[in-house]
Specification:
Layout: E1 2-4, E2 12-14, E3 19-24, H1 28-31, H2 36-39, H3 45-48, H4 51-64, E4 68-73, H5 84-87, E5 99-100, E6 103-104, E7 126-130, H6 141-147, E8 152-158, H7 160-173, E9 177-186, H8 190-205, E10 209-211, H9 213-219
Helix pairs in contact: 4-9
The structure holds dicarbonimidic diamide.
Residues 25, 30, 73, 158-159, 162-163 line the site of dicarbonimidic diamide (C5J).
């Protein structure tokens, strides 16, 4: 077993052989200027600031041979997997499926739905398209984690209080021990990120643990 002694709210013990890294939605539409994130009225620069830490996490995990799963929030071109309630949000700006500067917003195969070049999946890594905020909803994630005999999940990605938190709660309810990499997750709203970190750790790790990438690296001897 490895241990992240500095993890909050208390040390996180995990078996690296039963752990996966789950990187949520590090997509151009959320992080680059002009995509869905911008259309929703957000400043995307805070999200850009976590790219180096996320790359560091990916690099160190790849060295250990731990499986990596990337998710992309996106929909089929005919939008048949996008509930009308989700589609009709943001009536003032670009909506899902509209044509924007990076192709159709959050549509599979469009440039904006792709993961940032810097963090692009490498051969052997799993990429899951997800139509919801949570990574388990309408995806094969449970099957994949079962196949990999996963017990522990290290989570990174955006945005902290939306897709990251929803996915972490879903994983926690399914019995996985989850740790969120604090400096490899970000929100358009700094106060929402801080609130989410607190919610996760509250009541004796009610949703899971948090730790910095350097602390995860130390535990993995990297
Ligand atoms: C959002 C996400 N914020 N990946 N998606 O709509 O958090």
């Amino acid at each position: 077993m490895a241990e992240i002694v500095q993890a909050l709210p208390y040390p996180f013990s995990f078996n690296p052989l039963e752990t996966v890294l789950l990187v949520i939605d590090m997509q151009r539409d959320f992080i680059e200027s002009g995509g869905f994130g911008t259309a929703l009225g957000n400043d995307v620069t805070p999200l850009q600031s976590i790219v180096p830490a996320t790359l560091r996490l990916l690099t160190l995990v790849r060295k250990t041979g731990m499986p990596v799963i990337h998710t992309r929030e996106c929909h089929k071109p005919d939008l048949s997997d996008c509930p009308p309630a989700k589609l009709k949000r943001n009536s003032l700006g670009l909506r899902i499926g509209d044509h924007g500067p990076m192709g159709r917003v959050l549509i599979v195969g469009e440039p904006g739905a792709e993961i940032l070049d810097e963090l692009a999946p490498i051969k052997g890594e799993i990429v899951l398209n997800k139509p919801g905020k949570g990574a388990f909803y309408n995806t094969d994630l449970s099957v994949v984690l079962d196949r990999l005999r996963t017990k522990f999940i290290i989570i990174a990605g955006v945005t902290t209080e939306v897709c990251v938190q929803t996915s972490m709660r879903e994983a926690n309810d399914r019995g996985f021990e989850c740790l969120l990499a604090e400096d490899a997750t970000e929100s358009y709203f700094p106060e929402f990120k801080q609130a989410t970190l607190k919610m996760i750790r509250a009541q004796g790790a009610i949703v899971g643990w948090t730790a910095k990438v350097s602390e995860i690296a130390e535990a993995l001897n990297e």
